Amino acid sequence: MEGHVVGPPSHLHNYVVEFTAPNGESTRLEVEQHSETVDVAIGSEVPLLVRPDGQRAIFDKKDPRINIMALSKARQEAQKRADEERFRGLLEG
Q1: Mean pLDDT value across residues 12-40
Q2: In Å, how far are 23, 49, 63, 69 from 55, measured between CA atoms?
Q3: Of the candidates 26, 60, 57, which has an alpha carbon nearest to the alpha carbon of residue 40?
Q4: Which pLDDT value is given to residue 48?
Q5: Are β-strands 57-59 and 48-50 bridged in parallel, bridged antiparallel, or unpaired?
Q6: 3-state SS, one letter per residue, for the chain
Q7: Is pLDDT at 1 greater than 50 in this prediction?
Q8: Neighbours of 65 (CB within 10 A)
Q9: Do the beta carbons of residue 87 and residue 81 sit within 8 Å?
Q10: Residue 55 neighbours by CB under 8 Å, 6+ apart
């Protein structure tokens, strides 16, 4: 299956986000979730990239707060540090 991604289907969401547009007005727009981003909680703050006219916005999928790969790497590093600390604690007894 060259060129195809195999795995469980991912369910992406559309979110209604509210932000202050460059002109200072409060604006609501629909934003699509990308496969590179995690689900975000309702009411949470999320990183957005907004067009200067304020008429379009997208999630900043490179932001480590919502980027799947960055969050996964951070969790792995935290687990590694916790394992190392636990091991040192056992050695020092």
Answers
A1: 89
A2: 11, 11, 21, 29
A3: 60
A4: 93
A5: antiparallel
A6: CCCCCCCCCCCCCEEEEEEECCCCCEEEEEEECCCCECCCCCCCCCCEEECCCCCCEEECCCCCCCEHHHHHHHHHHHHHHHHHHHHHHHHHC
A7: no
A8: 15
A9: no
A10: 29
Q: With contact defined as beta carbons under 8 Å apart, do 48 and 58 qualify? A: yes
Structure tokens at 26: 């409060």
Mean pLDDT of 26-52: 90
50's CB contacts (< 8 A; 6+ apart) are 19, 21, 22, 56, 57
pLDDT for the residue numbered 14: 92
d(CA 56, CA 12): 19
Tell me what percent of the residues of the chain surpass a pLDDT of 70: 88
